[in-house]
Design goal:
The chain has 327 residues and is α+β, with helices and mostly antiparallel strands. It has 10 helices and 8 strands. The strands form 3 sheets. It has a 3-stranded antiparallel beta sheet with strand order 3-2-5. Strands 6-7-8 form a 3-stranded antiparallel beta sheet. A two-stranded antiparallel ribbon has the order 1-4.
Amino acid sequence: MVQELVIAIVAAASAGALYTVAAAKVVKQYERGVVLRLGRLRNDVRGPGFTMVLPGVERLRKVNMQIVTMPVPAQDGITRDNVTVRVDAVIYFKVVDAASAVIQVEDYRFAVSQMAQTSLRSIIGKSDLDDLLSNREKLNQGLELMIDSPAVGWGVQIDRVEIKDVSLPETMKRSMARQAEADRERRARVINADAELQASKKLAEAAKEMSAQPAALQLRLLQTVVAVAAEKNSTLVLPFPVELLRFLERAQQPVQQQMTPPPQAVQPQQPTQPPRPAQPQRPAQAQRPASAQPRPQRPPAVAPPPMPAPPTAVPARPSPSKPLAKH
């Protein structure tokens, strides 16, 4: 009897332990437990911690309350301006009502994914290409409203929807590249023309200032030569302006006038002496060789009356300007 009683107690304890193990459930902090008793929803949603359910009578379903990040598969579509694009997105949502997420929809994750894909296709068809590329914030808000409207009845809240990437055909990329290049070239030409206008105004002012001083033009030319000569691997062609020749000619004229002697000082003058009587030249002619031809006789020159010598008359020396005249 005692042995049978011990066996019965052990069996009852084992059954109670198995029942307790089967009935004990643990709900995590980020989860909520929805209890169905005989297929019927219990009003109380089990919070995080330890809880008990009746094995075989009640069933506990745990619902994750964390924010779920779900990528939306890329969707091909045609924009309102007839451009074929491929757009993918990402959606952030979370469950706010665990009972509705279990009862109202079979699989809320799959439902949200399909709703996001259809809404993304609808947004592509209603938008222009420029809006998809530059005005994404507005499209994200519209896409969020389209997904959030049916998701509210499922106990799901859409936090944010982001369009991640927009893929364009290669022909469209080349067209957009040519458009951007033309725009950049137009802006570059406008900037270059503006720079030329400003430079021409400054050059006109500089020319006006240089016209008053011809030497300024020569200094500017020399400065340009120095700047070009800094490149040792280039050949320097130095133009010789006519203005420089005229400038040197005007500067040389006063020097020549100062160095050129008066006409009467070109030939040396002998010191004034009283005239001597003319002597006959016959004996001198007799001593010449026979081969020398006699020169024609000139009439005897009449000596002018003696003139008083000027007080400053000095024997003139040869002018130093003769070598310059040779060159």
